[in-house]
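User: Can you help me understand a structure? I only have the sequence.
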Amino acid sequence: MSVTVQDKLFKQIDKTKVPNHVAVIMDGNGRWAKKIGKERFFGHNSGISSVRDTIEASIDIGIKNLTLYVFSMENWKRPETEVKALMHLLFSSIDSELENLNKNNIKLDVIGKKDLLPKTTKKRLESAVEETSNNNGLNLNLAISYGSKQEIIDAVKSISDKVKKNIISLENIDEKIINDHLYTRNLDNVDLLIRTGGEIRVSNFLLWQISYAELFFLELLWPDFKKSHFFEAIVEYQKRARRFGKI
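Assistant: Let's start by predicting it. Here is the structure, written out as tokens:
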């Protein structure tokens, strides 16, 4: 039996040194669909298989936390028909994948301004989070209706209110207190950020949490992203020296 590129990359990975938290900007669905003469939604739907591959690859090598940028605050500005289609896709995907999440011991969470979501979508997400809450394998975090600047604004408001009420003293505000007021309060900072689609920017995604993350950019569009590409990013990550400002 021939050895695939995926197999070769998998064998190169040191499972004792995998990143604790990987975040992914899944860019390029619309462009992928346009390239083959389809509507943008076809690309979003096709990208679901890449999500599955990314989750499976994370489990294969023992990553604990995976955060996927599903829908940004800025995405609300897209045409209404596309937004509605995306919300329907999100709802149906959660419905179809819930059994697999539990089967694979995956704990689901959602970060972002959930109150902006359609009521049915919000309710289904909250139900799925509850139904997977006892799982203790991969922590799968979906950033939906998410924007990092809004997250930081909300944290500042919450901390300010507690200072005003003498719950927190101004002098005691530190990184931990800020972390504790972010949407990601239960997560460690990001070790590796992967972005597909050929763009070299972070697009208002986890700005505080990626302050010392390794960045890995790929030209390929999201529906073409497979396990081998995820393993490639991990291999590259393990080659880098992470000094955090030290010598």
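Now, to help you interpret it: The chain has a mean pLDDT of 95. The chain has one domain: 15-146+190-236. Let me know which part you'd like to focus on.
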